[in-house]
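[09:14] KT: can someone run the structure on this one? pasting the chain below
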Amino acid sequence: TEDFRERIMARHRRHHLVALSMILLGMLVLSRSTVGAAAPWAAPQSLAQGNVDPQGAALAVDSAGRVHVVWSAEGWLWHRARAGESWSPAQAVMVGHTPDLAADAAGHVHLVCAAQAEGADDIYWLSWTASEGWGLPTNLSETPEDSSAPRLAVAADGALAVVWSEAAPGGPRVYLARSTDGITWSSAPVPNAWGARPVVTWG
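[09:31] RB: done, structure tokens below
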């Protein structure tokens, strides 16, 4: 049936993205067709030419099918996007590290990262559109202690959820920030949640 075919195609798309994100840790991209499991892998491409010790790569595919990659190198976050067979030049986005990416159905690509503002790392969110590029970052944590390991999820209606780990007496606490529009955010510790590398998703 059509529903069964869509589920099979969705499985192929998920495998495609997982494979890409794993390989991106070495700043190499291997792409393949999502039509069938027998589709061949393309030749690897280096995306971080000129960067010293690139690391912490994140991947998302936007609603137009463009592949976005963000990585950290030399204290900065860098971005490239692929439309068709060509990649955009590497663009410096902001000072920061440990990025995570997610895309929504409205054409936005959302980025979270850790960056040092005044003595301690805070968690920042910003978004990209094809018409305007990257917007200004918003500080989600604004705490005196170090914030680290941000992860991001986007709901089907565009709502955003960001989690991270916050240094605290007795061990790192998990924080959650939410927004329905990327303008107004609420942020608080998750009750009874402790740990160093939280993850988040929408049910």
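[09:33] KT: thanks! The chain has a mean pLDDT of 83.
[09:34] RB: yep, looked fine to me
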